[in-house]
Amino acid sequence: MREHLQGKKRIVIKIGSSSLTHAATGMLDLRKLEKLVRLLCDLRGEGRDVVLVSSGAIAVGCTAMGFGKKPDRVEEKQAMAAIGQARLMMTYQKLFGEYQQTAAQILMTKNTMLNDLSRRNARNTFEELLKLGVIPVVNENDTVSTYEIQFGDNDRLSALVAALIQADLLVLLSDIDGLYSDDPHQNPQAEFISLVPEITAELAGMGKATSSSGVGTGGMAAKLEAARIATDAGADMVICNGSDIENLARVMEGQETGTLFLAHKNLNFDLIDYISR
User: Fold this and answer.
1) Which end of the chain is more exposed for a tag (fewer CB within 10 A), N or C?
2) Using an 8 Å Cβ cutoff, are 8 and 48 in contact?
3) Is residue 158 part of an annotated ligand binding site?
């Protein structure tokens, strides 16, 4: 069942804030970042199209300015995003440069996706960058987004990007091994679910609306919503633990890693329907 993942040609990888930073200090985990960039460059070297959706701007900004926790006020969050996004992208550029790989930054807002012309322009930009062999690094433009027009979390954003560029695989590097029948942090009897052929109403009910980390925004409910978007668009999706970046390599090698959600292309799929919800 997993072997077909080895043949995926256009891959979107999302990594969350908790997988990018040290839990004790909130500072960037440079060893983990370097390993991630190296794996992405290897995937690109194999001739695959690669897009990285990276959280972490607000977390990096908070650390830079000495904030002990994520601020509550919107203005503070947006200021931290402005500071942190620049630092985060500078780090990515330096690491990608070590492997002679060109990266590009794409900051998106929900309005970009809702407007037909902007959405088409965004798709064309992705296509041109991928044709040039560039790895786009995507994040929501938290600096200008308002509550009413936010994507909500980068799990959802990554699924929308996967649908926009017609990717055939989405990998969510998370703070959990995959999908469980219940929250494993609260219930030690929770059962791990390795394969999801279809997202049923019962399965959707297993999602939790909170994140187990103090720096992320998306919980299992958000990941199930991302899986619904990605699989309806025709992409397989895998949730695996980002604490070990090698899990990404294991997924691409077809190993039993994380939870695999199988694609089931919705013939009536219209991206705008999923964006506006």
Assistant:
1) C
2) yes
3) no
63 φ, ψ (degrees, to nearest 5): -65, -45
Q: Are the C-beta atoms of 176 and 207 separated by less than 8 Å?
A: no
66 phi-psi bin (left φ>0, alpha ψ -120 to 50, beta other)? left
* Cα–Cα distance measured from residue 141 to residue 53, given in angstroms and rounded to the nearest whole number: 12
Which residue in 184, 164, 168 sits closest to 176, CA to CA? 184
| Nearest one of 85, 81, 100 to 37, comparing CA atoms | 100
Q: Which of 202, 152, 161, 154 is nearest to 181 (CA)?
A: 202
Mean pLDDT across 6-27: 92
> In this structure, which CATH number among 2.30.30.240, 3.90.1180.10, 3.50.50.60, 3.40.1160.10 belongs to the domain 3-275?
3.40.1160.10
175 labelled binding-site residue: yes
Which region among 32-46, 162-176, 210-224, 240-254 has the lowest average model confidence (pLDDT)? Answer: 210-224
CA distance 57 to 64: 11
Gap between the Cα atoms of 46 and 131, Å rounded: 14
Tens-digit pLDDT profile for residues 94-129? 999 999 999 999 999 888 888 899 999 999 999 999
- 247 is annotated as contributing to ligand binding: no
Domain range annotation of the chain: 3-275
Q: Is 145 annotated as a binding residue?
A: no
- 153 labeled part of a ligand binding site: no
Cα 205 from Cα 166, distance rounded (Å): 28
Residue 7's identity, in one-letter code, is G
